[in-house]
UniProtKB/TrEMBL annotation:
<dbReference type="GO" id="GO:0007165">
    <property type="term" value="P:signal transduction"/>
</dbReference>
<keyword id="KW-0716">Sensory transduction</keyword>
<dbReference type="InterPro" id="IPR004117">
    <property type="entry name" value="7tm6_olfct_rcpt"/>
</dbReference>
<keyword id="KW-0807">Transducer</keyword>
<dbReference type="GO" id="GO:0005549">
    <property type="term" value="F:odorant binding"/>
</dbReference>
<keyword id="KW-1133">Transmembrane helix</keyword>
<keyword id="KW-0812">Transmembrane</keyword>
<keyword id="KW-0552">Olfaction</keyword>
<keyword id="KW-0472">Membrane</keyword>
<protein>
    <submittedName>
        <fullName>Uncharacterized protein</fullName>
    </submittedName>
</protein>
<keyword id="KW-0675">Receptor</keyword>
<dbReference type="GO" id="GO:0005886">
    <property type="term" value="C:plasma membrane"/>
</dbReference>
<dbReference type="GO" id="GO:0004984">
    <property type="term" value="F:olfactory receptor activity"/>
</dbReference>
<keyword id="KW-1003">Cell membrane</keyword>
<dbReference type="Pfam" id="PF02949">
    <property type="entry name" value="7tm_6"/>
</dbReference>
Length: 420
C-alpha cells in the first residue's frame, strides 16, 4: 500500500545543484515540490501523454481516499451532533477541509501554469550579477524557511500531538466517525485512528505547501525588487558597478557608438526598466493566478478564527483542550500573516525602488536619458499594491491582517452575546 501511494516521484532535480544554470531554489520551495510530488500534483514537464494520464489518475485516487473520504465522514458527523460544543468543534474542522479541497482542486487544474511561473524564475534576468545582489535572495531564503518551519511545527506537530492524546485517552483524533468510539473493538479503533492521523497529516502538509508556495513567490518578487534597487543606485556611477565581464543579466539591444559614456548610462537605465517590467509582470501573473483561492482563504479565516476563539473562551475546560485550541489558533494566524507580511514587503520595496531613482548620476545623462528617467520615475511613483482580486478586493498588507483579527473579534463578541 505504501509503495502504491508513495513510490518514488521525479523530484530529485529539486535537491541537486544545477551548476550549469546556477539556479538557487529556496529550501522551502524544494520541500513544497516534494510534498506536491507525494500527492501526484507535480508531474514532470516532459512526461508523455499516457504517463501523464496515469499520473493524474493516481492523484485522483489519492485525494479521494485521504481527502474526500475524510471530509465526507466529517459532514456525516455534523448531522449527528446534539450539543453546541460538538457542532462548533465539527464546523471549524469541516470548514478548514472544504477550503483545502477548493485549493487542492485549483492546484491540480492549474499545475502547468504554476510550473511555468516557476520556470520563469530560471531566466537570466533573475540571476544575481554580484555578491551584493545575493543578499536579498538570502534574506528571502531565511524568511520563507522560517515561516515554513514554524507553520509545519504548529500544524503537523499539532496533528501528532492530537494522536498521542487520542492514544492515551482512547478518543478519536477528530469527532468524525460517529459509529467508532472507545466502545468499539480496539483493533477497529486503532485502524480508524491511524487513518485519521495519516489523512490529517497529509491535509496539513498540502495546506502548508500551498500557502507557503504563494508566500515564497511573493518573497522572491520582493527580493528581485531589492536587486533592482541596488542596480538603479549604480546607474551612472561606474565606480560602483560590478565586474564589467559579467553578462548574466539579459542584454538590451544597444545603440551605436558604445564608447560614449552617456550611451552607457542610457543602456544601464534601459536594462533596469526592462527588469522592472519583468518583475511587475511576474507579480501580476502570480496574483492573477492565485487571487481566487487567496481571497477565499482570507474570508474563511475570519470565521474560522472566530469559531476557534469562541471555543477557546467558552467550550474549553481542561489544559489539554486549551493547548490544542491555542495551537490551532497559532496555525491559522501563521497561515494568514504570511500572505499579508510578504505582500506588505513588496509594497514597501516598490517605494524603495522609486526612491532609488533619485540616486542616479543625473548630471552624466543626456537629454533622452533624462526623459527616460522621468518617465520611469512617474511609473514607479505609483508603487506596487499586492491585492487578491476576484469580485472583491483585499490588499495583502499588515493593515489587512490587523483588520482580519479585529473582524474575527467583532464576530466573536456577537456570537457570545447570542449564546449567553
Amino acid at each position: 500500500m505504501a509503495r502504491i501511494f508513495f513510490w518514488k516521484t521525479k523530484v530529485e532535480k529539486f535537491f541537486t545543484t544545477r551548476e550549469v544554470q546556477q539556479i538557487k531554489l529556496l529550501p522551502s520551495l524544494r520541500m513544497i515540490f516534494f510534498i506536491f510530488g507525494i500527492f501526484y500534483a507535480w508531474p514532470d514537464e516532459r512526461m508523455e501523454k499516457s504517463s501523464l494520464w496515469w499520473y493524474r489518475l493516481k492523484g485522483v485516487l489519492f485525494r479521494m481516499f485521504f481527502i474526500y473520504l475524510c471530509t465526507a465522514t466529517q459532514v456525516a458527523y455534523n448531522f449527528t451532533v446534539t450539543t453546541r460544543e460538538e457542532l462548533f468543534e465539527g464546523m471549524f474542522i469541516l470548514l478548514t477541509q472544504l477550503v483545502l479541497i477548493l485549493k487542492m482542486e485549483f492546484f491540480y487544474k492549474n499545475v502547468f501554469k504554476i510550473q511555468k511561473l516557476i520556470r520563469r524564475l530560471e531566466g537570466e534576468l533573475y540571476q544575481p550579477r554580484t555578491a551584493e545582489e545575493d543578499y536579498p535572495l538570502e534574506r528571502a531564503r531565511k524568511k520563507t524557511t522560517t515561516f515554513w518551519v514554524l507553520y509545519f511545527i504548529f500544524s503537523d506537530g499539532l496533528v501528532t500531538k492530537w494522536l498521542i492524546i487520542s492514544c492515551i485517552y482512547t478518543i478519536m483524533l477528530v469527532p468524525a466517525w460517529p459509529v467508532v468510539d472507545h466502545t468499539a473493538p480496539y483493533g477497529v479503533f486503532l485502524m480508524v485512528l491511524g487513518y485519521q492521523f495519516v489523512a490529517m497529516f497529509l491535509n496539513a502538509s498540502f495546506n502548508i505547501s500551498w500557502d507557503s508556495l504563494v508566500a515564497a513567490l511573493l518573497a522572491l518578487t520582493n527580493a528581485h525588487l531589492h536587486r533592482l534597487q541596488i542596480q538603479l543606485m549604480k546607474v551612472g556611477h561606474p565606480q560602483l558597478r560590478g565586474s564589467s565581464d559579467d553578462k548574466r543579466l539579459a542584454t538590451v539591444e544597444t545603440i551605436p557608438d558604445q564608447k560614449n559614456s552617456k550611451d552607457d548610462v542610457y543602456n544601464e537605465l534601459l536594462r533596469c526598466i526592462v527588469f522592472h517590467q519583468e518583475i511587475t509582470g511576474f507579480l501580476r501573473d502570480v496574483l492573477k493566478l492565485f487571487s481566487g483561492p487567496m481571497l477565499l482563504q482570507l474570508y474563511c479565516s475570519v470565521f474560522i478564527l472566530c469559531i476557534t476563539e469562541f471555543r477557546l473562551l467558552t467550550d474549553v475546560n481542561t489544559t489539554t483542550e486549551t493547548i490544542r485550541a491555542l495551537t490551532y489558533l497559532i496555525c491559522l494566524i501563521i497561515q494568514v500573516v504570511q500572505y499579508c507580511y510578504f505582500g506588505n514587503e513588496v509594497n514597501y520595496m516598490s517605494q524603495k525602488v522609486h526612491q532609488a531613482t533619485a540616486f542616479m548620476n543625473y548630471p552624466a545623462m543626456d537629454i533622452r536619458t533624462r526623459k527616460l528617467l522621468i518617465a520611469f520615475q512617474q511609473l514607479t511613483a505609483k508603487g506596487i499594491h499586492c491585492s487578491a482580486k476576484k469580485i472583491f478586493t483585499i490588499e495583502l498588507s499588515m493593515a489587512t491582517f490587523v483588520t482580519i483579527i479585529k473582524t474575527s473579534y467583532s464576530y466573536l463578541a456577537v456570537l457570545r452575546s447570542m449564546t449567553d
